[in-house]
Amino acid sequence: MDREKLVKLTNEVYRLTLFFPKKDPLRYRLRDVAVSFLACPNQKDLEILESFFEVVLAQNWVGVNEVLSLKGEYNILKCDMDIVAAVKLPSIIHKPIAGESSSGLPERQERILNFLKENGRAQVWQVKQILPEVTKRTLRRDFENLLNQGVIERLGERNTTFYQLKTEVS
Fold it and tell me: Which run of H or E residues covers position 154?
């Protein structure tokens, strides 16, 4: 997927949401999902974005053409992802890019998975100790991406939130 195009679309989402009421949660949720998709493109985020764009259209905060244009660009990405998923290229063809492990995950997420394998479960602050250069917010995004991919699961909530490798039920 073209990283430059993803960055441009994310910037467009930010520009568009500047016209939303400042305290409206949709302003920030739309940005969060766009950033999540930028970090790790996936079908779930695309479906959420599509739903959010429908709500935005109903609110009349911004021009219909701007919303439809942005929605169309994300739909093109969705079609591209559907085509790639249908073809299912062999993993041998995939060459890791800088900062990416051989599994296709970013190196940081690979380190998180290794930590979970060694320790069973972890909270964000514990992973922050082994990755001090990474912010808690970025680590939470990494955990969210791993959750979306179905690799890990979340246990508890708020201050008692733990993450662990997903266990398969036979």
Answer: strand 152-155
